[in-house]
Write a structure and sequence with these properties.
The chain is α+β, with helices and mostly antiparallel strands. A hairpin with a 4-residue loop joins strand 6 and strand 7. It is globular and about 70 Å long. About 50% of the residues are buried. Flavin-adenine dinucleotide (FAD) binds next to strand 4, helix 5 and strand 11.
Length: about 475
């Protein structure tokens, strides 16, 4: 980077908050997908909206691409810089600015960690309902940009309905205030467009979130089944009975074994699959739903249903589920997580297809997922030091997502498209659909400086990318 620009950036954020040496920048080269890497020229850590505005204006004047980065837990390469450009980290934009219980809202900076917000609110009787399994680390800004989900989004909805307002720095540095403290939108729903736009429309610097009361009663069950098939049938039956559990998660045998060895949460090793089922709400309703769930699991081949007897045990069961991705590190050098969606009733079929695809490519696949939403997370285990495996991994991943679409589903439930799935977008969208989306991107981000090269297809297949004949803005290793 030229000295004059480096000097200006240091003046805006302070010497120590403008990282420009390769060593300082190294840790920002990928997100949760270790397969995708890109090198930024600078990483900037502003602490105020006005600093973000100044950085973005400087980038705009000099035609320099930039990308927002929260905690970097994204699973589609969304916050990875192209080769060159600036990363604008929200790590220092981490303040809870206001908690307004009368109106059940909080105003936060985007770098506030998801779990920190809920832990702050809990003693007051509230929480922020979207709870990605990465919630100990991921930020509210990243949740907004990805329209993140989480185990409890089955009942409470994804991030979108929990966002009431946002301050947005447009890619030319202009400030926009979208929404506010009250629900309901007048005019075009620009906030709705912003949520889930994967950081391609500007940088969010303040967010007004809706607060959800902590439920009166919660019961958590671990139901063991002989196989994923019976567990999937039970999922359909529970939902078909009109029950909407707060969470309905599945872990297959391989995942359970790995998690149990790591967390010792009491997952039954002899089972072929388990469901982690939580119901919450008024005590009477929770009582009734618990009885129905017990009955349905028994009827669908359930081997055993244990209930968390206290908060400590409940937390342990959840820790097992939420630590699953990390636990794969015990048995595999790398993993590549897919994020397909199918109609719930297609779960048994798609799980058989996933198994067959694993066998076809000689890859181990471990499954842990939001079963109630039909949102699969097959984790393809591999070793990136063996480069011959990478092509197989990408092809297997693509095949899984194609199967999801054939079954009436989608290529992403919550992790976004980013750099990972952009070339699969035509499986779901026509040229006219994609062109309509691109027109929205152009309206906000006409010079395509803000997070360029994401979401929209480049026209290359995974095989071509894996064979090294093609480089996206960042590089698949
Ligand atoms: C172990 C693990 C478990 C996970 N479980 C879930 C899960 O259950 N559900 C789920 O939905 N996801 C899950 N994820 C994925 C990820 O945690 C979520 O997508 C999360 O919302 C990303 O937040 P982040 O702060 O890490 O964002 P980053 O990864 O830093 O960025 C993600 C995107 O948001 C954009 N962005 C970030 N901040 C801003 C901002 N201020 N303004 C504009 N754009 C911005 C970035 O440019 C990028 O495009 C998981 C990831 C891991 C590693």
């Amino acid at each position: 980077m030229n000295n004059s620009l480096a000097g200006k950036l240091k003046k805006i954020v302070g010497q120590e908050n403008a990282l420009i040496t390769p060593e300082e920048i190294l840790v920002y080269e990928s997100d949760g997908v270790s397969l995708i890497k890109g090198k930024a020229e600078a990483v900037l850590l502003p602490s105020k909206t006005s600093e973000v505005v100044e950085i973005v204006k400087l980038a705009h004047e000099n035609k320099i691409p930039f990308v927002a980065r929260g905690a970097g837990t994204g699973l589609s390469g969304g916050c990875v810089a192209g080769n060159g450009g600036w990363i604008i980290s929200t790590a220092r934009l981490d303040k809870i600015l206001e908690i307004d219980l009368e109106n059940r809202i909080a105003i936060v900076q985007p770098g506030v960690v998801n779990e920190t917000l809920s832990e702050t609110l809990h003693p007051l009787g509230y929480h922020f309902a979207p709870d990605p399994s990465s919630q100990k680390t991921c930020t509210i800004g990243g949740n907004l940009a990805e329209n993140a989900g989480g185990p409890h989004c089955l009942k409470y909805g994804m991030t979108l309905p929990h966002i009431l307002g946002a301050t947005l720095v447009l890619p030319d540095g202009e400030l926009l205030q979208l929404g506010g403290k009250v629900p309901g939108r007048t005019g075009y729903d620009l906030l709705g467009i912003l949520v889930g736009s994967e950081g391609t429309l500007g940088i969010v610097t303040e967010i007004t979130v809706r607060l959800t009361p902590v439920p009166e009663s919660v019961r958590t069950f671990l139901a063991a089944f002989p196989s994923v098939n019976e567990a999937s049938d039970a999922v359909s039956a529970i939902m078909g009975a009109g029950i909407v559990p707060a969470a309905l998660e599945m872990l297959d045998k391989l995942t359970m074994e790995v998690v149990e060895a790591f967390i010792h949460a009491g997952y039954p090793k002899e089972a072929g699959a388990v469901l982690l089922i939580e119901v919450d709400g008024p005590s009477v309703q929770v009582e009734e739903e618990s009885e129905s769930i017990r009955r349905i699991c028994g009827k669908h081949g359930g081997l055993n249903l244990q209930e968390a007897t206290d908060e400590k045990q409940r937390k342990k069961l959840w820790l097992g589920r939420k630590s699953a991705f990390g636990a794969f590190g015990r048995i595999s050098h790398d993993f590549f997580v897919m994020d397909g969606v199918v109609p719930r009733s297609a779960l048994p079929v798609v799980m058989q297809k996933v198994e067959a695809i694993g066998e076809k490519y000689g890859l181990r696949i471990a499954n842990v997922f939001h079963a109630g939403d039909g949102n699969l997370h097959p984790n393809i285990l591999f070793d990136s030091r063996d480069r011959s495996m990478i092509e197989k991994v990408l092809l297997a991943g693509e095949e899984i997502l194609r199967e999801c679409v054939l079954l009436g589903g989608a290529i992403s439930g919550e992790h976004g498209i980013g750099l990972e799935k952009q070339n699969l977008m035509p499986l779901m969208f026509t040229e006219a659909d994609l062109s309509a989306m691109e027109k929205i991107r152009i309206a906000f981000n006409p010079d395509n400086l803000c997070n360029p090269g994401k979401i929209f297809p480049t026209g290359k297949s995974c095989g071509e990318i894996a064979s090294g004949n093609y480089l996206t803005v960042a590089t698949w290793i």
